[in-house]
Amino acid sequence: MEEINSDMPLLEGDEFFRNLDMMEQDFLIEGDIQDFDGDDEEGELQSEEDEETIIESPDYPETPDEKLSKQEQLRMMHLRSHLNQLMEKVKHHHYMTAKTSDELKQNRNKISELEAEKGRVREELQTRNTEGNQSAVYRLRSQHDKLCQEIQDEKEVEKLICERLDKEEYELNKVEVERGKFLLAEDELVKKEDRLAKEKTDLAIRRLRKEERKAAQAERNLRNQQRFQYETMNQKQQLQRTLAEQAMQSQEKHSKFVSETMVKLKKRQEDENQRYKEEMKRKMDMLLKLKSDIQSNRENLKALRARDKAAEKREEEKLEQVKQKILDEGGNPDQILLVQKRISDMQRQKSTFELEQKERQAAIMDKILAEEEQMRRRKKQQPLLWSDPKREQTKILGPPKKKPLKTFQEYTKLSSEDTDFNLDLQDSLDDQGEKYDMEKFAPENTGEITIPEQGRDEASSDSSDEEDQDETAVDLAKPEFEGLWDHHKPYTVPKDIDSSPLKTLGASKMDKAIMSEVLEKHRAGIVVKQVAAGREFKGCPFYSKPDVIHFKDFDVGRSYKKKVTLTNVSYTVNYCKYIDITERLKDFIHIHFDPPGQMSAGLTCEVVVTFTPMINEDLEGEVKFLSQTGPFSIPLKCTTKKCDLSVDTDVIQFGTTVIDETLKRTFMLSNKGALGTTFQFFKVTGVKAKTATSALTSLGRITVNETGSHPPSPAQETEPDKSRKETTEAATTEKTATDKSTSDKDKTSEEDGVSKEPTEGQGEGQTEGDQEEGQGQEDEDLPEDASPDLAVSEYDDYGAIDGMKVGPIATGEIPAFSSVKLEIIWNPSLSGKVDSEFLVRFSDPLSDSISIRALGSAIDVPVWVERQSVDLKICMLDRLYQDTIIVNNRATTALRLKFEVCKELRNHLELLPKTGYIQAQSQFSAQLKFLPRASLFEEGGKYFDKDTGVLEAPMTIRVADQTAPVPFTLTAVVTNSEMAFDVSEIDFGCCTIYESNKTTIKLTNMSILPQEFGFVGHPDYVEVQPNDGFGTLLPLETIELDVIFSPKKARDYKFELNCKSLINREFKIQCKGVGVHPPLELTNQVVHLKATSLYDVSTASLHVVNSHTSMNEFTHPVPRIGKGEIAPVGPTSFEFKVPEGVPITMSPSVGTIQPGERCRVEVRFAPTLDEEEVRREAVRMATKQMEAQAETEYKEALKRQQEAEEAQKPKENGNGEDVSLGDDKTAQEKGGKKGAAPAKGAPPKGKQTPGNTVVTVTGPTPVTPPKQDEITKDSTAYALAVGSLLRQFRGKFQSVTVPCFVASGETTNPGELPYSIHNTLYVEVHCPMVKPALVVISDSGKATTDFGDVSLGQNILKSVTIQNISNKTVELSSTSLDTTGPFDVVNAFRMLPPDATHTMLLSFTPTAGRVFQEVLHIQCESGDLHLTLVGKGVSPLVSLSPAIADNGVMDVGAVLAGEYLEKTFKMQNTSSLSIQYSIKLESLSLLRHAHAQELPPFVAGKRGTLVGTQNNNGQNVFDLVPAEGHIAPGGSVEITLTFAPDHTSDLYSDGVKIELFGKEECQSFQIKGTAKTKIMFIDGGDPLHPELESLAVQSQPPLDEDDLRLQMQPVLVTLQSTALEDSYEPATREIYIGCVRTMAVSQKKDPPKPGYKDKAIRNGEFTFENVQALTQKGFNIDPQKGMVEAGVLKPVTITWTPPPGFNPNEVCEAVVVATLKGDVAEQLRILLRAMVVSK
User: What is the Cα–Cα distance from 1202 to 1211, expressed in whole angstroms?
Assistant: First the structure.
């Protein structure tokens, strides 16, 4: 009602009531429906009452005085609405009038004030003018003019206000007059409203009574229900107790049976356990017996192996004799022996094949006979499954020709081929030569030429099968009985598959050519190229894991197994077959591989490799496989255990020590290999030339050379080096000989333990024994005439001289993966420097000896100080430093000591005690105290350098009874402890409470000593970084410190920073700042984006929050700047200003946030390469390519010039002399070096005719690089430059600070909203950019794949090649494309190694005619690669012209039976593709007869088929020509539709389907037509017969004219009129009168009959008779008569309006006769049936 009040205009009294009457009619029906619903509701309430309840129905008065009708209530409602609207208008105009009056009053008061002000100014102006104050006069005149202007403006405003006031008063009076017209109606309305309220109250009271009765009844029902539930629960409890008692009784009854059963089960379980134990014991006994049998058979196996080798050797010798015999005769022994072997193999295989072929033939025949017998039984049991010849004679075709079975054909063909091949082979042997005919290989001669096993193995690898047979023939390694291990048999290659191709002996050229062709076909059948999507697979088809089969550190006699996984990485299905292994590894490696058969891409299979080493040697080889795409192999390595020896240091430093002092130093000897060895640690015999120096000693000042042996000779000095070199060479030679060992070595001697001959570098007496080997290794380091005992004696003597000797561990064993600690002891007896060499030797021949050097120095003072120079390093002023001076006494008596300090340093340096006694051969400790003071710079004198701060203080120790004192020196560097700041005060300015301000200060260490510092005692809102303000300053170092100010609330801050050093010195800085609380806040101040590769996208989000909802600063912090004004509460706007050139976007960047709300902001980071950099790279690449092309062209031109010059060199010049070749060549070389042509006009050396002119090449053509502006993003050069830069990209980190400006108010035009710079928020975005792992290398590196225009349903494949440009293997995956979309990834992803490529196959199958676009994300660990897939689906649709009706029916029209009608329509191709169409009729479908067996539509009640009545003569009633063809894009084809019925029917129809490309149906519709006997007919009436024509022929007897008139054809027309409230809606129906266009009317020759005319009738006429009688019943026909043209349907409208007084419950019927005049006159009886229906 509010909308009515606001929108309804004010009407006059009469107009209002007229509109009110119209509204009543609209709401009348709604009111009736409401009353009806109300009655139903009351009826429902009454029906729910009990029978005892008395039903009271309200008594509604029938007169309007007692009850207000719905119309009256509606009138009251609208009247009240109108009155309320008038009242609101009156109030509004009253308010506007009062408001305008107040404005007028204020305006007049202001005019009065301005007039008074104007008068005052005028008086003052006169006064100032009189005084002559011109400046005041000018000012007052300006003020006077301003006041005059303001008064004039106010008067204009007063005029406008007066006009508005008059208008408002007029409107007020007008509304009051209008309201006065409704005063009486308002009083009457009040009374009616009171009466209506009373009626509603009474109705509410009656409903309340009914609800109370209902509530009471519901309460009774609830009590009854509760009582019923209680009784039911008691019954259930009683039943449960009964069942429990019965269960207890049953348990007691069956407990004894349960116990007996448990005893039986327990006994049975014990028996099972006992049997299991016995079985396990039996198995263990069997295994132990098997083990003992194996041990006992080893000797037999060795003997058999030796016998086999001897036999092999004899066979080799025999084979060699045969070969030599053949060679003596001049033949090829290898070829002859191979041919003989293959002939025998062929005969054996042929016999085997014929036997197998016969067996298979018999099996196939049995199977065929069984199938035929089964088919006969099935035909006899189920005859209906086969067609009946009598029932379907038309479908029977001629009997098919019988063909022989394919099996017999193949067998016959194969047998004939084998026979021919055998004959050809025999012929080839006859043609070999005169010397070698088949007589030599006759059965009587075969005994002389036998092929041993080893010989065949060496001659050809095809004899592996016979070797296996011979080996299995004599095999004593088989156990006496089989064990309980797995009986699984490994896969064996069938003989027919493994048989090698045959070769012919002495075949002719044609036979050899045929044989080569057969072999090529055979090989081509094995290896097949794999092509997928037009791309051939190349490379290894299977990926092995691991890549190399490596058996490390093996032990002879043990077995090792490794499982290898093979993965099919080819494009499609593949096969895998194990071929062979390296010949050398066959004795040790066993391959277990079950061929998996057909493997799809990505599937895996397993190979088990078993290694049983028999010799301790390194082995290498490969395992060979064959796949459908070619062979491949897996490397295999077997490495023995080796030693890896090393020491942690090769130089031992003992330092300086006193004579007779014992020092020990250790070093670590480590073995990182898997083989243990023994070692010897000894000192090298002989002294080097500079081992000991000539140092004066207290024992007579002799040298070491005088007391020891003589210096060694140069030969002796280098002997250890030579021995080590020889040992290394020997180990290398032995290893090389082991790796390159051949089959000629005697393996039997190695197994039996026979030692090898000594290698180079070993002693002549060296053997394989452990003791002799160690002795032999020691002999290598000794001279030839020396013995090991002599070496040991020399070692002991020399160790006694220099004091160096080996520790307690000199020999021992170092196991695998362990270490040993060795020790060197030094006890010097003489002073001087010592340099000794030690050697660690190993028993392992492949390990080199390790040399260790020991250095030391010895002194011999009686009283001496350990440290001649006491260095206190760097000392600070006013700090105490202490040290201990240790004095040693080498004498045998006690001595008195006195410590002296120079007098200049006595205030700073002190030694305590000053006097002391040192006992014999003991130590004395004195305390040194050094406290440098500031006076040291003045008192230090010559001992202290003021510039450098270096102190060198001489100290003296006086020894009693000794003239020479013991001096030592104290050295120190003295420095201060000052630290200085570069600023004395820090002002942080304004800073928000959500952020921090950073100020950088510099702290300098004025000392030359590192000082530790720390900032302590500062408030919590201040932070010093790095390391929280703690650190160490290096000498004279200046560092930068960041002082971070983070205010917690809005106020003014003032504080000081206190920096303390480690010695408790303080350095202070004064600081101040202002805290700002902005109106908005950010949830994240720092946004960390993940490491994003180039051209990838990463996102993050944050929120902008407006938490300012109240200005009460005492309850919560409020937004303000320091102590300034509080920001207003209301909408607050923000704007993020992203710096230019940054690949960051923030959405939304501008917005307004209401108080208490938040806004989500998304940060999107999409790093790309710089456009300028890409264009420069593109220009560089293009220039380089152009230069290379120009250089190539220059070289070609230079070559052509040289050829032309060489062609002219033999020619003579004009003087008859030959041109000098040397001069031309020299000139050419000079010209080529300079790269420039000779000067113009320079005469040649010889005269040349114009025809012989030679063009000189000046150099490469200068290239013009393209401009950067010419390179676009869509160009190929741009894509190539991007790919080049992506490969060179090394990663980058970028930190971007984005300001967020804040202003109070809603966003308006830019620049209009005031804001404060202090309220700005900042977001720091961390953007790491990395090199992408994947790039596209196909299509010049473009990441967009465009499939172009593709027909709907057509599948297009495109390949995209990506490459891994990272340095690690990545695992590829992708996001799922739209499952209902047209794009799809055909092949699977795989692991992509570095620099490897992967080709993806993408398919596009559009399903709709539009443009499709999807983004395929190829994912890996380091980032995603985005591929944009674009394609356009073009719908190959055709449009029909004229178009088919909405119901999908094409009506051909009517035609006379026996004639035909042609109609054409066009089919146009509206797509951009050429389409192939075919038009099919459902009547010709193969499923038509199946559909004919279904129930007819009028019985089944559903639409069955589109095929209707057809011709009786078997011909199609409809035909479309052409039925198939091609339509070019935008082209069209005209289809001719022919309708030719052979009998009369109105049910001719057929279904038409237009298929495109033979599979897609784009159009389907139904064709309908009617066949008439006469040219005039009526259509459009109600159907009188089912839509199915009977096949029965009904013959009608001939009737005369009267009977024809009596039997007029009826037409039923039903009309339905809708009943309204007080009237009826007329019913309308149309029928159609048609005239058939015929060709036979004008050609009739029969005599005229009644009703016929003597000339051709092209048009027809119709007339409705007895129409007057229809009018009385309300029927009307328009038109009642008329003419119909041939081929036209003319509509006739029949209208029925129920007459007054018509009973709507009855049916009105009438009959009218329609006379149709065409070729004959015909009358039809039209039955009209009308009735009244409701909505």
Answer: 15
